[in-house]
Q: What sequence folds into this?
C-alpha cells in the first residue's frame, strides 16, 4: 500500500513537468513582422514555445538574458526599451499589430507572443512568420501579436500553439537572447 501511495505523487509530478518548459528566444526571432528595410537577412520565425490541447491559462515567466539592437546600444530584457528615430518610415511588430506607424516605440526589443489555433498550425504550409508578407503558405496575422514582457498570463479557449519573439522590425544588428518558462 505504501508503494502505491508513493507512486501517485510521482505520476502527478511527471504530468505537471510535461506542461512546463524552458524556451530561449533569439534576438533575430521577429517573424518578419513590422516594417523598415526590405533587405533583412537575419529574420527568423517566431519560436514555438508551447502547444496546448485544451482551454486554460498559459503562464509565461522571464528567467534570464538580455538582447540588444543597434549593435549593442539599445539593450533590454523582455519589457523592452524606448527607441526614437526621427527618420520615420518604420514600425515595430506590436505597432503593426495595432495599425500604428510612428518614429518611436516604448517597447522596442520587448518579448511578444502570438497564440495560433491548432487548426491554423496544422494547415499545410504554415510558418510562424508575418502572414501578410508571405507569398505562399499560411502565417500569423499581425493582430494576433501581444506584449508579453517579464510575466504574463494568457487565457486560451482551445487547442493551439504559443509562439514567442522579439518586438523589433530590423534584426540584422541585434544580439543576445532571453529565456522564459512557459507553463499550462
A:
Amino acid at each position: 500500500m505504501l508503494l502505491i501511495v508513493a507512486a501517485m505523487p510521482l505520476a502527478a509530478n511527471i504530468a505537471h513537468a510535461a506542461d512546463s518548459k524552458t524556451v530561449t528566444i533569439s534576438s533575430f526571432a521577429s517573424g518578419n513582422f513590422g516594417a523598415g528595410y526590405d533587405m533583412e537577412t537575419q529574420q527568423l520565425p517566431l519560436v514555438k514555445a508551447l502547444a496546448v490541447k485544451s482551454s486554460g491559462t498559459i503562464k509565461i515567466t522571464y528567467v534570464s538574458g538580455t538582447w540588444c539592437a543597434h549593435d549593442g546600444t539599445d539593450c533590454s530584457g523582455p519589457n523592452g526599451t524606448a527607441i526614437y528615430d526621427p527618420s520615420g518610415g518604420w514600425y515595430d511588430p506590436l505597432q503593426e499589430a495595432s495599425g500604428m506607424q510612428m518614429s518611436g516605440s516604448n517597447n522596442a526589443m520587448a518579448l511578444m507572443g502570438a497564440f495560433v489555433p491548432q487548426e491554423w498550425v496544422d494547415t499545410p504550409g504554415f510558418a510562424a512568420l508575418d502572414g501578410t508578407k508571405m507569398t505562399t503558405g499560411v502565417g500569423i496575422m499581425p493582430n494576433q501579436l501581444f506584449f508579453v514582457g517579464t510575466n504574463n498570463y494568457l487565457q486560451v479557449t482551445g487547442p493551439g500553439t504559443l509562439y514567442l519573439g522579439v518586438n523589433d522590425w530590423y534584426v540584422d544588428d541585434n544580439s543576445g537572447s532571453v529565456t522564459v518558462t512557459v507553463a499550462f
Q: What stands out?
A: The radius of gyration is 18 Å. The first strand starts at residue 20 and ends at 26. Residues 1-17 have pLDDT under 50 and may be disordered.
